[in-house]
Amino acid sequence: MDRQRLGRKNILLSVLIVVGIAYSGFLSFEPTLTGKHELDGMIGVVLGLYISSHPAAHLVEMFFYRRASRHQFSSKRSLAVWLCLNVLVLLISGIVIFVGTTRLIGQIE
Q1: Is residue 109 part of a domain?
Q2: Which of 62, 77, 86, 97 has the smallest number of Cβ neighbours within 10 A?
Q3: What is the pTM of this model?
């Protein structure tokens, strides 16, 4: 994977972080997004699963297909930043899934 593809993946992960925070933040200030708590919950769970699919795919590539070799990253610091960004996206997706699940199973106002 060249640096350009890595840069695009970093941008995608950053956008997913913003989307996850925006969804969770909006529902913490507003009672509902669509007018129905069940629909808000379904959107949250699906969005959270989509957000978590990207870092999960990156980890599968790294561990099983060995595509993330040491030649891909210019330094150990860039590898550490890449891994921290993936873990942050997984954390945000867990929060989005939690918010969606709580909307799905019960009304929170």
Answers
A1: no
A2: 77
A3: 0.83
Dist. CA 7–CA 59, nearest whole Å: 17
How far CA 85 is from CA of 13, 54, 56, 94, 100, in Å, comes to: 7, 11, 12, 14, 22
Domain span at residue 19 reads 3-104
Q: pLDDT (tens digit, 9 = 90+) per residue, 57-74?
A: 888 887 777 655 545 666
User: In total, how many domains does the chain have?
Assistant: 1
Q: Is 72 within the bounds of a domain?
A: yes
Extract the tokens encoding 78.
Answer: 């860039």
**pLDDT at position 77 over 90:** no
- More confident site: 6 or 104: 104
Query: In this structure, is residue 78 part of a structural domain?
Result: yes
Q: Which residue's structure tokens are 């210019």?
A: 74
Is the model more confident about 72 or about 8? Answer: 8
